[in-house]
Specification:
The protein has 167 residues and is mainly α. It has helices spanning 3-26, 35-120, 125-161. The relative contact order is 0.07.
Length: 167
């Protein structure tokens, strides 16, 4: 049930309650014996029953609206938590990707130095060491980026699998 239909239903119920109350006010009071007093009493009883039915329907509608609102608030809170977690995971992944890019640039530079040394016929142990360190850092950064991506995937899968705090 949408908010527009709930608002429309509330408006209709309020209008019906107003009509019933106006009918009760117009109904002649039973003050003495006679057919008119009995008819008025019967009509007033019917109006009271109709009023009670409308009040009951209004109470049920109010309860439904409250339940829908609670469900919506719960859903929004859950989505906000999920969004915060996804944002956090994306930040971590972004940092790891920056680290990976930096290490790849270092690796390219040391490889260029090694290539130039090789073309000149000079073996530079320091350049070889820097190259190996850059390669190792690139591997570590790649692994960290993959781990961040896996964490993001696992965060999406946990609710589907139903894991609470098993991990």
């Amino acid at each position: 049930m949408g908010a527009d239909s709930a608002t429309e239903m509330e408006r209709r119920i309020a209008a019906a309650l107003d009509r019933i109350a106006a009918g009760l006010e117009r109904a002649p009071r039973a003050t003495g014996p006679g057919a008119a007093a009995a008819a008025a009493a019967g009509e007033a009883g019917e109006l009271r029953q109709a009023l009670a039915a409308e009040q009951n329907a209004n109470a049920q509608l109010t309860e439904r609206v409250r339940a829908v609102k609670e469900r919506q608030e719960s859903l929004v809170a859950g989505l906000e938590r999920r969004l915060a977690r996804q944002t956090e995971l994306l930040d971590v992944q972004g940092l790891e990707l920056q680290r990976l890019k930096k290490s790849v640039v270092q690796l390219r530079e040391t490889n260029r130095q090694l290539r130039e040394g090789s073309e000149a016929g000079v073996a530079d142990p320091a350049a070889i060491n820097r190259s190996l360190q850059a390669e190792l850092e690139a591997l570590r950064a790649g692994r960290a980026a993959e781990t961040a991506e896996l964490d993001e995937i696992l965060a999406e899968l946990r609710p589907l699998v139903g894991e609470g705090g098993d991990a």
